[in-house]
Amino acid sequence: MARPKPETFDKHKVVAENRRARFDYAVEDKFEAGLALQGTEVKALRAGEATIAESYAEAKDGEVWLINANIPEYSHGNRLNHEPKRPRKLLLNQREINKLMGAVERKGMTMVPLSIYFNKTGRAKVELGLAKGRKAQDKREYIKDRDWKRDKQRVLREKG
């Protein structure tokens, strides 16, 4: 079977999204990282099966790893199928890795995966957010601001 040309891939197909992360964390910076995957993992991702709700990223020995991301076994895979929750290496430039590690060590920030998607060339990517945790009071203020913006848009739309 012939591989499709890169133009026929979805331009930005989101496979998994961590919507809770935007509520629990104040995302200050975003990075795009590649994923080092096995063949059956790519097939499972293309089928739209992945969850990153409880996952996080951590830096070890000058490399960044995606921990606890669940990509279930591929249904048509054989004995060579992958392990669903194995740590996966994130592919970043050395400058980006140094920036992430410095922010985590000095400022006490967290690396949170926001989404997994396929870019326009068909490569699996992770949108990684550099974030600070929100406390309960901050979450209440965030909800109040979000509701106020929604109501403001509604009023402006009605007045036309």
UniProtKB/TrEMBL annotation:
Primary localisation category: cytoplasm
Organism: Pontixanthobacter luteolus
Function comment: Required for rescue of stalled ribosomes mediated by trans-translation. Binds to transfer-messenger RNA (tmRNA), required for stable association of tmRNA with ribosomes. tmRNA and SmpB together mimic tRNA shape, replacing the anticodon stem-loop with SmpB. tmRNA is encoded by the ssrA gene; the 2 termini fold to resemble tRNA(Ala) and it encodes a 'tag peptide', a short internal open reading frame. During trans-translation Ala-aminoacylated tmRNA acts like a tRNA, entering the A-site of stalled ribosomes, displacing the stalled mRNA.
GO molecular function: RNA binding
GO terms for biological process, alphabetical: trans-translation; trans-translation-dependent protein tagging
PROSITE patterns tied to this protein: SSRP
InterPro entries, A to Z: SmpB, SsrA-bd_prot, SsrA-bd_prot_CS
PANTHER family referenced in this protein's UniProt entry, alphabetically: SSRA-BINDING PROTEIN, TMRNA-BINDING COMPONENT OF TRANS-TRANSLATION TAGGING COMPLEX
Family of the protein in this entry: Belongs to the SmpB family.
Entry protein name: SsrA-binding protein
Domain of life: Bacteria
Annotated localization: Cytoplasm
GO cellular component terms, A-Z: cytosol
Keywords assigned: Cytoplasm, RNA-binding
